[in-house]
Amino acid sequence: MKKKVLACLLSCAMTAALLAGCGSGTDTTEADSTTTEETAEDTTDEAAETETADAETTEGGRTFGYTYWAASDFFSTIGDTLTEEAAKNGDEVIIVDAQQDQATQLSIIEDFITQGVDAVFLNPVDREGIEPALDMLNEAGIPIINIDTAVANLDKVDSYVASDNYGAGVQCAEKLIELIPDGGEIAILDYPANSACVDRVTGFTDTLEGTNFTVVAQQDAEGKPDPGLQKTQDILQANPDIVAVFGANDQCAQGAYAAINEAGSSAVVLGVDGSPEGKEYIAEGGAFVATAAQSPIKMAQEAMATAYAVLNGEDFETEIYVPTFIIDASNVQDYMDGWQ
């Protein structure tokens, strides 16, 4: 359409120049010709500027960075949902796994800054070790939406979006009391470097205070299946009469489940996540009896909505906690299709 308008303007200008030449002398023709050339140049420049502005409007979408501590279906689901939410506005998300390495995550943040991302969604490898990256992002003026695991200093992020992790621990303890009302010796697989896991364990132990349950072992399983397996094997050797193992997440709880089956123990396992794998084990009807389910989909939706609010200068919540709920044999079939 712009080309047609430009052509029309040039045609009119040329016609005017010819008419002026038929009715006047040479000097007038040259003056009018010069004016026509200037008009054409001006029109061409204006058209070019308009085209550039339109292109910038079309291609000027925002770019977000998302980095998380280690690969899992949970964080992949968050990434997929962030991408879907951003795409609704013509924006994109760069997703990079920190592979459970603090130095790698710091490098990822530096790359985000170099690329000029508009905001960063951060799940830290180490809640304290991430602070230099927070300082760099703050200095660069890039908003930070902290997801799932809280950084040590929440004053350095714009918003923190997570599950109600303390509540998840409470729910698991209440389920354990329901299943084994007489109490007994229990073990806990924790992950001290991860604030979400710390909150879950705190909620669990606080709820068991004054009951007949006794924590005889508490080990760092690093939130992974293999350490969960090894730690539970060691715990069972020293404490063969334990009645339950609480895993701070479903991944380490899966390791505990394998160790209990291997040892022929009658202990039960409870985890936190509501992961597809955890739900499959619960559906089998064995030792893995319950999980406090998170919703990574809802968390990601809340995180992206918050990021847009920050960028648009709108009001936003600095802390958002998404409720969890218990999945056990009674309702597991309702949630077998991926993450909730």
Biggest sheet details: 6 strands, parallel
Assigned CATH architecture of the largest domain: 3-Layer(aba) Sandwich
Strand order of the largest sheet: 2-1-3-4-5-11
| CATH classification, class level of the largest domain | Alpha Beta
Kindly report the CATH topology of the largest domain. Answer: Rossmann fold
The rough form would be described as elongated
Query: In terms of per-residue confidence, which ranges show pLDDT below 50 for 5 or more consecutive residues?
Result: 1-60
Q: Could you describe the 3D structure shown?
A:
There is one protein chain. The chain has about 350 residues and is of the alpha/beta class. It folds into three domains: about 1-60; about 65-160 and about 295-320, Response regulator (Rossmann fold, 3-Layer(aba) Sandwich); about 165-295 and about 330-335, Response regulator (Rossmann fold), CATH 3.40.50.2300. The chain is about 50% helix and about 20% strand. The chain has helices at about 1-25, 25-60, 75-85, 100-115, 130-140, 165-180, 195-210, 225-240, 250-265, 275-285, 295-310, and strands spanning about 65-70, 90-95, 120, 145, 160-165, 185-190, 215-220, 245, 270-275, 290-295, 320, 325-330. Residues about 1-60 have low confidence and may be disordered.
Topology of this protein?
Blueprint lengths: L1 H22 L2 H34 L3 E6 L4 H15 L4 E6 L4 H14 L3 E4 L8 H10 L3 E4 L11 E5 L1 H15 L4 E7 L4 H14 L4 E8 L4 H14 L5 E4 L2 H14 L4 E6 L2 H9 L3 E6 L2 H16 L7 E4 L2 E4 L12
Parallel strand pairs: 1-2, 1-3, 3-4, 4-5, 5-11, 6-7, 6-8, 8-9, 9-10
Antiparallel strand pairs: 10-12
